[in-house]
Amino acid sequence: MLRLGLHLLRRSTKYSSLPRVFSYQQSGGLSPAPPAQQAASYVANSASSPSLSIWRRKKEMGKEGLIVAKELKRLQKNPVRLDRFIKSNISRLLKSDLVSVVAELQRQDQVFLCMKLYDVVRKEIWYRPDMFFYRDMLMTLARNKSVDETKRVWEDLKSEGVLFDQHTFGDIVRAFSDGGLPSEAMEIYDEMRRSPDPPLSLPFRVILKGLIPYPELREKVKDDFLELFPGMIVYDPPEDLFEDGEIRKQSEEYY
Questions:
Q1: Cα 12 from chain centroid?
Q2: Domain-embedded: residue 16
Q3: What pLDDT, in 10s, does the model give residues 22-64?
Q4: Which residues fall within 8 angstroms of residue 60, CB to CB, at 6 or more apart?
């Protein structure tokens, strides 16, 4: 009896930390869902939670990860040997090492290798669609003006049902405008406007600041902002801001 009591206590403790999930009963009203259903709902709703996402954790590369990253860079000009190395070595990496290698290649703006490992990660048995995984990929592609790769990654995240929050949308739009890709930035901005999440003022301000070099596009976003937040003010930069900056740049080059 004592053993049975301890077993029941452990089971009740296991599910006590999960969020309460309710199901509708025909007998009338809501009642708590079974523990298994609560656990499944918790996992599904937390796929892109910052506290659970492996792409948000501190990425410390182990010795094997360092060797693999170095070898990938050495072999990238030899497609046959590179593919052979990826098939024979990448699959043997621990999940944490693979995540760290991807992050390091993104930091070094190795777009070709990032896309290679992007395909590898999405085939791993542990892979789950993750907002932060796609955010980091898009940020890398924006910095390197990789338009074709951006379209492919965007199609993939849409097919997997990944949804960005408003702050992430703002950061991505800003990254593309800062990267000199205003058309792509506005396409993502349109996706942001169609998002089911309620709009927030801060992401709009981030986008407006990044669109200062593109006055016409900025006016469009500004109009949307004032329509959504009529009580707020947008400060416009001086009209001669870029003229002065261009003169200063030419003067520095001359001397």
A1: 36
A2: no
A3: 444 444 444 444 444 444 343 334 445 555 678 877 667 788 8
A4: 100
Could you tell me where the DSSP H helices lie in the chain?
Answer: 2-16, 35-45, 63-75, 79-89, 95-107, 111-123, 131-143, 147-159, 166-178, 182-193, 201-210, 215-228, 241-254
Give the orientation angle of helix 131-143 with respect to helix 147-159, to 10 degrees.
170
Whether 233 maps to a domain, the answer reads yes
How many domains are contained in the chain? 1
pLDDT at 11 over 50: no
Global pTM reads 0.74
SS (H, E, C) 238-255: CCCHHHHHHHHHHHHHHC
Does some domain include residue 240? yes
- Establish if 120 belongs to a structural domain: no
- DSSP 3-state assignment of 217? helix
DSSP state letter for 8: H
Pairing label, strands 30-32, 22-24 = antiparallel
Residue with the two structure tokens 């991505």: 172
Q: What is the pLDDT of residues 144-196, one digit of tens each?
A: 999 999 999 999 999 999 999 999 999 999 999 999 999 999 999 999 999 99
Domain that holds residue 199: 163-255
Tokens 């980091």 belong to 136
